[in-house]
Amino acid sequence: MSTIDLSADTAERPLPQLSRQGLEARALKSGILTGLTWLAAVLAAVPLISVIYMLMVQGGARLFGSGFVEVLTGLPPAGFEQGGGIGPAIVGTLAMVGVASLISIPIGILAAIYNGVLEPRSWTANTSRFLAKVLTGVPSIMAGVFVYAVLVIHWGYSAWAGGIALSVLMLRTVVLAAEEAMAQVPQRMKDAAYGMGCTRTQVIWKVVLPTGLPGILTGVLLAVAGAAGESAPLLFTALFSNYFISQLSEPTASLSILIYNFSGMPFPNQIELAWTASLVLVLMVLGFNILARLIGQPKV
Fold this sequence. Notes:
Blueprint: H1 7-12, H2 25-63, H3 68-73, H4 87-118, H5 123-136, H6 140-155, H7 159-183, H8 187-195, H9 200-228, H10 232-237, H11 255-263, H12 268-296
Helix pairs in contact: 2-12, 4-5, 4-7, 4-9, 4-11, 5-7, 6-7, 7-9, 8-9, 9-12, 11-12
């Protein structure tokens, strides 16, 4: 039986090189594309950096100066009045975002469980998924008009109405993000749980939700950050107030409406407070986004 001598072919064939020369065509192409990617990333970050810089210059002096406590806890000033703060707007914003979170997060996660785990291909799941995607394209002011027609006309402006309007906007993000997070759970983990005798409820509670929790929390925090910066729905639902909220059934101040009101006034003090409120709002939203990124970061 004849044998094939491979040693000669192997000796003549050039060995693959793991290192590459700097002037090699593929290296040049990779370097150019990497440079263009970095340039595009820097250009995309310019608007955000410029906005933060402008807010720090215009509103940072008032916020981080001697009036830090007064700005965060004081009442909005009247015309020609000096000093004052944005305390009611901060409390009102947190109250309405809290109401919206209490409504949208449980409903959104339950809908995501049904769409992604229980009956992902059913007519109800497809309809729910379609409506959630449609809601992402609906202007935020429409949520305010809807709640105004349903609630505000009958019961007046209130933090409840503002929170419900924000919950409509948060619901779409929570549903889609939670369903996507649950879809990332490996099927073999669920099959293993079923194989050990777990019921469907136990699989959802013990396997799907804990595994998809980082993605779910990321979606929730992004929805909260988006709701905190909304202004159009609150014009039709919560209106505004110069005082701290005492109950949820009364008109309530918010940071976005305060910025809208004060930025159009002819008084330098109010305009300065509008810049300061903008900085506080951006820092709140930025904080939620950074927290979402940290939670959603894959664990090594």
